[in-house]
Amino acid sequence: MVPPAVVVCYRPERTCDRPAQLAQLLQRLHDLAPAAPVYVIEQSDDGRRFNRGALLNYGTRLALDDGAQGVILHDCDLLPSDDLGQYYRDAQHLARSPVHIAAAYERYKSKHFFGGVVGLSRAHILRVNGFPNRFWGWGGEDQALRERCLRLDLRPVAARGTIKDLEVSDDGAPLTLSAKLARLDAASAKCPVKREHLRDEARAWAIDGLNAVRPASVAVVAAHSTPMAHLHVVVQLPDAFTAWERHAVAQACHTAGCVPSGIVKQSSMAVVKTNAE
Hints:
The protein is an alpha/beta fold.
């Protein structure tokens, strides 16, 4: 059996204990599938909204370059149960079709939900071109990935199992969707041009995705390995991987009535030279 690589997107937040969640996830993955290489891709504290798609694309690129035959794309606050272990231990279980491992996730019940944890074979993630890189902020990139799969007649299947959600409300109860959305609104964390980007997917999917990500264009702030993680790397993402992506973000912001700098939450941003400079 050859296990897939597990790629985890991550950034510490003020609203919840992400480091503790990550530690629990890494321990769980180690117990469930000790041979599976884990790549933790952390977005630096650069003042910008979280870009889940670009982080997972970057980690996928590293994993594929290392020879991974499949990838499981993972949020840091979801723990898989024992009955989902087959997907983590053997990439062959991802070979026939994309698998929505977090299908049993309680917070979201929409049939369009394709987030949380998904698994794809090496061939399929390359074929659909991964996630779009232009979704700065929460929401949309998972829906875009689902549409890319369906566009190529790759119909995701729902895994049978349970997922433990580590993101809870202030009183320790499971976090409801309305409470999650309220947190995102308070933090200005949503993608302000989600709808515009989704409308663009028909022409964007073959241009904006995994094929645009070049590790040399990403600034590595820090990197280390641990017994639980094959690689934990802190990166500063570029504003755009291609000129097309930069133009698409500007056009979407114009349509939505914001400016391209709307992807930025704070006025001051750290400047880190990329390896390509």
